[in-house]
Design brief:
By secondary structure, this protein is mainly α. It is built from 1 helix and no strands. Helices cover 20% and strands 0% of the residues.
């Protein structure tokens, strides 16, 4: 049996190249709003919520 340890890191600390795409599965609307709130200090991100 393999145990998976989740990695917890603030989204604002992620560094991505321009044009990068990140998919975060199983995110609730409430979690998405928290991510939006965390990234409000920077306007260079484009976020989309797909349910």
């Amino acid at each position: 049996m393999t145990t998976t340890i989740p990695v917890v890191k603030p989204v604002s600390q992620m560094q991505l190249a321009p044009g990068s795409v990140v998919t975060i599965p199983n995110v609730s609307w409430q979690e998405f709003e928290l991510i939006l709130h965390e990234l409000t200090v920077c306007d260079r991100h484009k976020l989309t919520y797909l349910s």
